[in-house]
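Minimal example, chain plus PRP.
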Amino acid sequence: MSSEPQTPVPQPNGTDLTPSSSLILPPTSEHSQPASSRTNKSSFGAESTMSLLVESLKDRMLFAVPKKGRLMEKTLELLAGADVKYNRAHRLDVALVQNHPIALVFLPAADIPRFVALGSVALGITGQDVIAESTHAEQITELLPLGYGKCSLQVQVPVSGPYQSVEELSGARVATSFEVLAGEFFSKVDEKAGKGKKTRVEYVGGSVEAACALGMADGIVDLVESGDTMRAAGLHAIHTLLTSEAVLITSRAPHPSLTPALAPLVPMLKSRFAGVLAAKRYVYASYNIRREQLPSALKITPGRRAPTVSPLEEDGWVAVSAMVERKAMAKTMDELERAGAEDVLIFAMDNCRVGV
Ligand SMILES: Nc1ncnc2c1ncn2[C@@H]1O[C@H](COP(=O)(O)OP(=O)(O)OP(=O)(O)O)[C@@H](O)[C@H]1O
Ligand SMILES: O=P(O)(O)OC[C@H]1O[C@H](OP(=O)(O)OP(=O)(O)O)[C@H](O)[C@@H]1O
């Protein structure tokens, strides 16, 4: 038996089964059995763990989330904000959600479009870039942009190299992890450039920026967010193929596991996620102002739909409350002050519900 810590495996009814007592160990004590028999019992235990897990997935909606990389941490924060509670057993890529009939499936972001498109899972979170690269984009519906994992897929070349446009790069060597998108893009560039040469697009799994310095490529196609990696490698961008962010996705075809009992989970999660995101994006502003100054103040705080205006006990004064973008908070307060607002208060929101 493994010496790793034994994490309780949550069960559909909310109780936890501890692997040592209920899943891994055979019914009788391991120490009373001969060694050969102990080995058999252990593998029996592993099989029974797996079959129990498979059994417990039957009445659950499967939801794929990134298991590593740039999208993982923010996705886990989003799940926590939406009160999706789960225990993930060590090294297990499936976790049963304790408070909803959902099972989370932890997968590499690049594999999620395929799992969603082919109906292996009902919902997923991944980047728009890997959806486009997967060639399953047409089978996928984007339910909600999630505002994180923002980046651009760009053609990059050495700053002082001989190729400074995509037309000049046509016919040369390009390294990328996005060989489908880069291949499609350079086919069109090659056709337009009319040199009768085909750009050689070669797959590299990671650290793509090193390819030019190593003499493997004349240019690359890779993701850029801050641009730090690109600049550190002495590269600059000469073209943007696409911009991307993380999105909640489902398959265009109705998913067989989404029974009438499970189907409402999709709008519920979408609405919860939108609320978590809006609470991060907006703050709640409240202020008092003379009624005659109200029109100019309302231009500053129009609210998401419309501001709330209520009369104050003092004649000629009103109280206004409205959601304001967090990033514009300080500027908005300055402008309100100039417009005659008093008692300007800003409240952060823990959570909220907004129309999506
Ligand atoms: N620098 C970045 N800033 C923001 N988002 C990014 C950045 N790099 C990648 N992403 C987004 O995160 C997704 C996952 O990228 P990441 O390289 O972290 O994946 P990974 O699963 O660890 O894959 P790999 O093992 O191939 O690196 C990308 O498809 C993209 O949507
Ligand atoms: O513009 P920046 O903010 O510097 O981000 C860009 C880098 O981020 C991604 O790689 P990541 O660090 O995820 O690792 P990888 O190279 O192994 O894919 C991407 O492939 C770039 O290398």
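The two ends are 49 Å apart (CA to CA). The CA atoms of residues 71 and 254 lie 26 Å apart.
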